[in-house]
Design brief:
Elements lengths: L4 E5 L3 E6 L6 E7 L7 E6 L5 E5 L5 E3 L5 E2 L8 H10 L4 E5 L12 H10 L1 E7 L1 E5 L3 E5 L2 E6 L5 E8 L7 E7 L2 H8 L5 E3 L3 H6 L12 E4 L2 E2 L10 H14 L6 E8 L3 H12 L5 E5 L21 E3 L1
Parallel strand pairs: 4-8, 10-18, 13-18, 15-16
Antiparallel strand pairs: 1-9, 2-3, 3-8, 4-5, 6-7, 10-19, 11-12, 12-18, 13-14, 14-20, 16-17
Length: 310
Amino acid sequence: MVYSRQTTLRESVTFRGVGVHSNSPVRMVLQPAEADSGIVFIRRFEDGSEKAIPAIWSSVCKTELCTVIGESDVSTIEHLLSALCGLGVDNATVEIDGPEVPIMDGSAADFVEGIDLAGIVELDAPRSYLRILKPVRVEHGRMFSELRPSNHGFRLEVEIDFEQSIVGRQKAVVDLDPSCFRRDIARARTFGFLRDVERLWKAGFALGASLENSVAIEDDRILNPEGLRFADEFVRHKTLDAIGDLALAGSPILGTYRSYCGGHRMNVAVLEALFADPNAYEIVEAPRRRRSGAMEAVLAAAPAFAADHS
């Protein structure tokens, strides 16, 4: 589905679970929102107070192992944002009563199912896109991430390279649209190495991690009895994370995102670099529908897609 107008949910949908890092129980409700609202988290605290935090790049305060917004008010937002972006939801209010988005099964599949049950509706307001006009690149050691102009809607080229042979070097190339997101990206789970568990626990991370919500790797074997969902599930999950982090741009992107050995830090850093250069992007309006239902060729805009994994 290609939307020329902004979208929101038809009705609310509720999720319950625990945070993968905090192990805190949480109830999260996605609510419809008006046009031009964007995605906004409403963090509700035990004392009855609440705080609104827009899901935009300038709200990010930490990117170690997950993406955190506000003053550490809500963490691990990337899987939910990936589902909203991947399915084309522009506006929603996320009411949450804990410090972390529930991890569910470690992927975005449960969020996709909930959004599909709630339904997506168009609003009476044109959709705007963020078009990349020139390359923007950030590097850190051997890692890099960059945004480049493209005629493919929103394309992601994500590459990872681990010394462990069970992961190794993997690359995913995705032209993002809802059908491909559901089919090729949404079910890819987060993963981690057993050797890192004690260190992460001491640092306050992975307290809620289990074989029910993470792919666990020991040496060169998968500990999960069911194995992998895809042969290249690791790079697909990194692509899922990138979609969620880049949704913090605030508008659907028209351009190509490339990364090598990146992660949350590099995903957010390239957005910071992009918005630091007003000549690197422009906001463009979506094609308009003619009465016949055809699209006027205002721009080569909307995500049209097929996945190509290698």
